[in-house]
Amino acid sequence: MQTADVLVLVGYFIAMLLIGVICALRVKKQEDYFMGGRGFGKLLQTFAAFGSGTGSQDPINVGRATWTSGLSGVWSALMWLFVTPFYWIFAIWYRRMRHLTTGDWFVERYESQAMGVAYTIFGFVFSINYLSAMFSAITKVAEPLLGEATILTMVGWIGSEDPSHLRFVLVPMIAIVVVSYGVVGGLAAAYWTDLIQGLCIILLSIILIPYGLSALVEKYGEEYAVATGEQVEALTTWDGFRIMHQRVSEDNFQLFGGPRSGEFPLHFIVSLALLGLIG
Asked: I need a labelling partner for 149 at 20 to 30 A (CA). Which of 11, 41, 164, 270 fits?
């Protein structure tokens, strides 16, 4: 990581905390906190739905899946496409219930306070396990990016010299930021964060493509030019597509099946979509 990377991360964390504080100042009653005052427009609603079904890990997961399975690897994320129309129906249903939380709905639907408690406990257990796994993954990704000198400086804050203790510094720092804006700002803070993160995910996913194509041209352009009789100087970024087709077998470009057909055959894609809907 370079200085610019650190500045971007620090700026991002500060922005998240500011969003939480600004949204907290607008909270006047319970409905404002849990439902954002029911005043979200189309843009925030769209990216809230986008944020529910995607995450910063998706470009990485899709990249891994396409590396091992070819074009059919896109179904590791695209399986949600078939579930989306049901979300449109659910959105109206949730709005008409006029409840603040899903726990409230369980209490009314089953006329049982115990069901509301059970849902709350499930929510706690799920969130604890999910966030713990995510924070652990963040630490493992951060270790090679930060570099040994930076890691030793950070673990030195807690009086340690063991680089493996980075998690005791990094995880609390990230957790404090994430929990703070959510707890302080309520649903509105989460929605605005989804908007920012959604735009970043879309932008960063798109800009990966020309960089990848340029890398192909730089590495294999001369070999491709010799094989096709073209001039190396005449090659552009978009010739990366032709180089990719030249170097990779055609079954890598199948939308269903591919070089490892056991990973994303049609019946598996259907199963994933059904599991997503049920979940």
From this structure: 11
Cβ pair 123, 155 in contact under 8 A: no
Q: What CA–CA distance (Å, rounded) separates 116 from 108?
A: 9
The rounded distance, in Å, linking the Cα atoms of 115 and 109 is 9
Hey, what are 142's tokens? Answer: 């951060």
Confirm if 31 and 39 have CB atoms less than 8 A apart.
Answer: no
DSSP annotation of 36: G
Which pTM does this prediction carry? Answer: 0.68
- What does the pLDDT look like over 89-114, one tens digit per residue? 877 777 777 777 788 888 988 999 99
Q: Which residues contact 137 (CB under 8 A, 6 or more apart)?
A: 57
Cα–Cα distance measured from residue 87 to residue 13, given in angstroms and rounded to the nearest whole number: 30
Closest alpha carbon to 62 in 219, 246, 226, 204: 204
* DSSP state letter for 229: T
**E strand or H helix at 239, and its extent?**
helix 239-247
* CB proximity list for 184: less than 8 A, separation 6 or greater: 20, 21, 23, 24
> What do you get for the CA distance between the two ends of the chain, in Å?
37
- Consecutive H or E run containing 175: helix 167-228
Burial 168-187 (b: 16+ CB within 10 A, else e): ebbbeebeebbebbbebbbb
CB-based contact 240:46 (threshold 8 Å): no
